[in-house]
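Risk register update: the risk of archive-format incompatibility is retired. Evidence:
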Amino acid sequence: MEAELIAVGNELLGPESLDSNTLFLTRALAAIGIRVARKCTLSDDLAVLAPTLRECCRRSPLVLCTGGLGSTEDDRTTRAAAQALDVDLIRDPEAAARLRDWLAQRQTPLREIDERQAFRLTSAQWLPNPLGSAAGQWIPTPAGFLVLLPGPPREMEAMFIQHVRPRLSALLPAQALFTRVLSIVGLAESAVDALAAPLYREFTNPITTILSTAAPSVELHFQATAPTPAEAQARADQLAAAVERRVGEAVFSRERETLAGVVGRLLRRRRERLAVAESCTGGLLGKRLTDASGASDFFNGGVICYSDAVKQEILGVPSAILAKYGAVSSQVAQELAHGVRDRLKVEWGLAITGVAGPSGGSGDKPVGTVFLALEGANSAALVQHLRLYGGRAQIRRASVQAALDLLRRCLLADRAVE
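Archived output:
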């Protein structure tokens, strides 16, 4: 079974509110083997709601709609559903009595406007709301079912778990869904797809999705269905393993780990520690490494060496090297990695220096010029020269990601940096 999700509410179309309901429903439906094929967000406008619901209910076996079931003037989802399915609304005396009791317990009288919540489609069954006044509705459609759920996430989630999920489970054959995710660094989305597509295009189960993240990284999602969770996982893992062999060491995680998390795990395993020196990234590398608790196991600290004075006085970069090569150079990056490793007494020193823009570039060192350096114990520094593109934030993120990947690959090699 495939589902469509509709989130209703003018506030969800503004810049400040996040629709978390469809995210919850996507996860909850996937857990019982239902894939979400479409989702949309609509305003509280009857002229928009009714035709959209009509179209969805004609083509999809399952439509779940959240929001617009309250008692205010802009709560119009129930009326829109009645128009969409061409059925009448009826006042349910038992529902009105339950609503009156619910309000009385909260020392609130039943107003005429509240009675809107006692109206249901003639073809609908009520879905009790254990945490609020707005009941949901389970409604037959030409293609399957329409489910109306309240908008407040706490109420919607409780109603789905207690009253919707059991109904859906009873309708479905025994089926499980499993998704394996390969996280990839150092390759563009198009390059990953060129490697993976010849393998995954032969399969309809698993379904493969490729996407880029802001990290930046690329993710390949392999979503498989089968009668049991173990069979679904085996299907997804079989294709993921074949793709991983094709993509190679650029795959840094199969468990949705962050790149910084992978680096931390590898350092812990080796019982080694890291320190960082950052110029153009201004502390972003240190932040990524310490986003998760427990980073003190492997991370000693860092120096934000934005000025030449800090590079010289704190990390010992010779003034002659700065004068000859400039702050953005392989030579200075190498000195930064050595200085931070030496002063913070760690096994690994990792440094970044570059031109993040939008100003500061030159003919030989344009915006996006970045140098990375990594020095391990008893070894000379390994230096990388990058030419990155995009805005300032994008260049800084890509610099951090490349630095983490440089360290990851060296740790995986289990050898001293040469």
